[in-house]
Design a protein that fits this description.
This protein is an alpha/beta fold and 113 residues long. Helix content is 41%, strand content 18%. Strands 2-1-3-4-5 form a five-stranded parallel beta sheet. InterPro entries: cREC_REC (IPR046909).
């Protein structure tokens, strides 16, 4: 089981696998069991954005156990959250914001053991 961080620019937090674009994120969701997924929205000019990734996730039934939205795009966050909220299975935990610092520290400590 992995934690997955989708972002084209930000550094990847310790304890997470990094996907730099939407296609890589979807491939990892297809191939791995993902515990925590953190999504960015703006992924570079001419690339899929976070909303495109979420639509593909919903279409293919690709869900992590827990999903965070760390994007600084308010409209992107709203779009991703609304789509996921309406479509996610009941067992999926959806957060309308980034992973709290304390949780990131806990994950990093666990990964370093």
């Amino acid at each position: 089981m992995i934690h997955l961080y989708l972002d084209d620019y930000r550094p990847c937090p310790t304890g997470f696998a990094l996907a730099r674009d939407g296609e890589e994120c979807l491939m990892m969701l297809r191939e791995c069991e993902v515990d925590i997924l953190s999504l960015d929205h703006e992924l570079g000019w001419g690339q899929m954005d976070g909303t495109d990734v979420v639509k593909a996730m919903i279409h293919e039934g690709l869900y992590a156990r827990e999903i965070y939205l760390h994007t600084s795009s308010m409209s992107g966050k709203k779009s991703m959250y609304e789509l996921l909220y309406q479509a996610k299975p009941e067992h999926v935990i959806l957060h309308n914001g980034p992973i709290p610092a304390e949780r990131l520290e806990q994950i990093a400590r666990t990964a370093q053991k």
